[in-house]
Amino acid sequence: MNSFSDFNISKNILDAIHDMGFEEPSPIQKSSIPLILEGKDLIGQAQTGTGKTAAFGIPIVENVEAKNRIQAIVLTPTRELAIQVSGEIRRIARHKKIRTLPIYGGQSISHQIRALKQGVQVVIGTPGRMLDHLKRKTLKLDDVKMLVLDEADEMLDMGFIDDIEQIIRHTNRDRQTLLFSATMPPPIRRLASKYMNKPEEVAINRTRVAAPSVDQVYYKVFERTKLDSLCRILDSEDIQLGIVFCRTKRGVDELTDALQERGYLADGLHGDLTQSQRDKVMKAFRDASIELLVATDVAARGIDVSNVSHVINYDIPQDPESYVHRIGRTGRAGRKGIAMTLVTPRELKQLRTIEKVSRTKLEARNLPSFEEVAERQQAAWKQQLIQQLERDEDHREIFYEIVRELSEEYPTDRVAAAALQLAFGQTHHVEEEVYDFGETGASKGMVRFFMNVGKNVNIEPRKLVQDISELAGIPARSIGRIDVFDRFTFLEVPRDAAPFVYEALRQSKINGARVNLEPAKPRNKR
Ligand code: AMP
User: Fold this and answer.
1) Residue nearest to ligand 1 atom 18, measured at CA
2) pLDDT tens per residue across span 142-152
3) For a tag on the chain, would you pick the N or C end, based on fewer CB atoms within 10 A?
4) Whole domain around residue 390: which residue ranges?
């Protein structure tokens, strides 16, 4: 099963997968798609970043028919995930006439009722809202043949287990049930044994692989500003030759375009290129006329270049083995190499799995600040400016006019500096993603969290600081006030690190106890 066409799926889905830029099935897809297509119940132990959504999304799209009935439902813990999953299934169903609809709390229910009436085949929703519709009888699940519980452990932590059971009871007994979860705590096991029919279990390959001895670091980034973050890293590093890995062919094309636009010597490599195109790119990379090769895992497999100084995982690998393969492209022939991985808050768990399975530890690094980048870029900027000064004066008259006019009001050096800032200064501005925790009653610049364990599991502030620092990759000294009570704890962390702390600690274990985290409410302040 090394290609999507090895699966027993329709041409319209293969075409859609091709449009999405997937080159080959991810490990979790290889193991679960055939079983799901056979109609088996399945427990998949997989987290975000492994390709789990398409693992159940592809069989769903294959199985549902165009008739006007809901035939598959997916339960997700959050509205964000519902929207994301719905989007992914919609893309897979692009060439098939079926409709998907996300339903979640916070959106007008009458809007959802209207949308449901128009006829949908796949509904993705949060348990609370789904139940609400069932009670109003605006959702009919009699024809559901596939039920997916996505991120079941998170739904458990959010207190959705009773809702889930009620929803399951509204569906057909002979349905197929799929359960995906990063961890398998006892209540989830019980749920599985109660409602699933001899489920098969699949997990990512946990055979240990040894990572090569190259320097390995990671940077915490946000999805929306990833490109800017990458550029900052590129600008602050001495890169002789670098390979930048993307998940999909589309990702390669988009990133290559974006990097070229910003003046980097970059080109892309993926499976849709002809042999001669590929040879041309590889030749340019070998003789270093391009510095950055943007590639998918598949395309990079055949590459044998010995002096790669940097491997950059722009997208986190789908499994530990792929991580080890990727970073093995550097540090060859006795040369020093460095492997850098960009990690979004939701991918922190995937990073920890990679570390565990490949028996390696990645060092957390802070993104270089604009000032640091500027320091290194000064010479290059000056060079570009000199080139511009030496060029013909064509079309410059209009700019002289502006300068003359402004110079009457401002000193000329200030005018020039502002112009340079416009030209060079703003491109790499990294904005904060809105992980909106609301008002938490924290000190200025901090976010305060409520954690569901305290002295009852021997939480000890010093040790907790150490744990948070390690799990979330933030300096211990940046962590603020910690108040441990009998059954809970409050902790304060810097605002920009908060999404990472939140994602890292939620669903983790401290002293054997399952930990959950919520933004604190201001009235909890003491
Ligand atoms: P997930 O783990 O489902 O959240 O997926 C993470 C990301 O991987 C999503 O952006 C998917 O579109 C993408 N993805 C899923 N399967 C593949 C695949 N076989 N090849 C490349 N990308 C994939």
Assistant:
1) 22
2) 999 999 999 99
3) C
4) 371-424
Question: In a mutational test of the pocket of ligand 1, which residue from 22, 81, 346 has the highest number of ligand atoms less than 8 Å from its CB?
Answer: 22
Task: For residue 53, report the distance from its CA to the centre of ligand 1, in Å.
Answer: 7
Is the pTM here over 0.90, yes or no? Answer: no
Q: Verify that 308 and 388 share a domain, yes or no.
A: no
Ligand 1 interacting residues, C-beta cut-off 6 A:
22, 25-26, 29, 48-54, 88, 247-248
Q: What is the residue with the minimal CA distance to atom 4 of ligand 1?
A: 48
The CA distance from 363 to 470, in Å, is 10
CA–CA distance, 214 with 234 (Å, rounded to integer): 18
Judge whether 433 lies within some domain: no
Q: Are residues 108 and 151 in the same domain?
A: yes
Burial of residue 312 (number of CB atoms within 10 Å: 0-12, 13-18, 19+):
buried
CB 236 within 8 A of CB 262: no
Distance (angstroms) between ligand 1 centre and the Cα of 51 equals 4
Among 483, 486, 482, residue whose Cα is nearest residue 454? 486
**How many angstroms does the Cα of residue 316 sit away from the middle of ligand 1?**
10
Among candidate residues 286, 334, 295, 288, the one with its CA nearest the CA of residue 314: 295
User: What is the number of the ligand 1 atom nearest to the C-alpha of 53?
Assistant: 3
164 and 230 belong to one structural domain: no
- The residue-averaged pLDDT of 258-280 equals 92
Q: What is the pLDDT of residue 434?
A: 55
Tens of pLDDT, residues 228-263: 899 999 988 889 999 999 999 999 999 999 999 888
Pocket test of ligand 1: the residue of 3, 53, 223 to mutate, having most ligand atoms within 8 Å of its CB, is 53
Closest Cα partner for 51 from 201, 180, 155?
180
Q: How confident is the model at residue 428 (pLDDT cuts 50, 70, 90)?
A: very low
Residue 340 CA, ligand 1 centroid: distance in Å: 20
pLDDT of residue 286: 92
Q: Are residue 119 and residue 231 in the same domain, yes or no?
A: no
pLDDT at residue 432 tops 60: no
